[in-house]
Amino acid sequence: MPNTDPKVIVALDFSTSEQTLKFIESVTPEICRLKIGKELFTSSGPDLVKQLVDMGFDIFLDLKFHDIPNTVNKAVAAACQLGVWMLNVHALGGRAMMQAAKEAVDSSNVVKPPKLIAVSVLTSTNQAGLHELGIDKTVQQTVIDLTKMSLECGLDGMVCSANEAEMMRKQFGASPILVTPGIRPAGSASNDQQRIMTPEMAMKSGSSYLVIGRPITQHAHPLDELNRINASLEVYRS
Ligand code: C5P
Fold first, then answer.
1. How many angstroms separate the alpha carbon of residue 175 from the centre of ligand 1?
2. Cα gap 29→166, rounded to integer Å
3. Is there an atom of ligand 1 within 6 Å of 11 CB?
4. Distance from the CA of 148 to the center of ligand 1, in angstroms?
5. Please, what are the domains in the chain?
6. pTM of the full predicted structure?
7. Which of 31, 32, 125, 152 is deepest in the core (most CB within 10 A)?
8. DSSP conformation letters of 136-179
């Protein structure tokens, strides 16, 4: 467990465990947490997760579970046994599904149960996309309503855009964990991200943790870049 409360979660968007472990040589659990998503988990599986947990890293297992309540309950229970620090579900899976996920965490019997957060509206979904799904509320209202439901189910927080963080803090106060992707240190390429924020701006807006991938993983000197980002966030470390 990192003792310095790193705010940066590095997105391990690699396709193999070899690439991942090579990158890991340049960082330590004291300076970052790590996110494993669908690509890496599908290629490298739970063994890699366990390996990284055993190395002392806090792992955010970003698999966005969305299924019938019983299946999600069992999947979350399995994730708890991997020793992950955080995991997530799709709020659109509904109240019963999220309650089943929460119940799995609460009964997991592990020393440190993971934090359970939800994804509301994917940033790739716009107003027209919501309409096609039969949702005629605005994107913002949908985010608010799904967040309200997630917190009522006892979840610890949400994945959201850093641009929404200030609004989320106004609506839901200080306690929910807000995990925000779409972060770009000043001077780095935006890649395919449309609306970006610097790490400092995102923390100032109310983010709890920042998901940062390519600006660190594709950097010629990942450790230097991570150290630079962490130095800019010193005031937010507890
Ligand atoms: O490389 P980059 O910093 O853009 O990576 C961002 C990470 O956050 C990726 O793993 C991406 O899948 C994830 N993410 C995102 N936007 C969302 C939700 C997740 O970029 N709305």
1. 23
2. 28
3. yes
4. 23
5. 8-233 (3.20.20.70)
6. 0.96
7. 32
8. -S-HHHHHHHHHHHHHHTT--EEE--HHHHHHHHHHH-S-SEEE
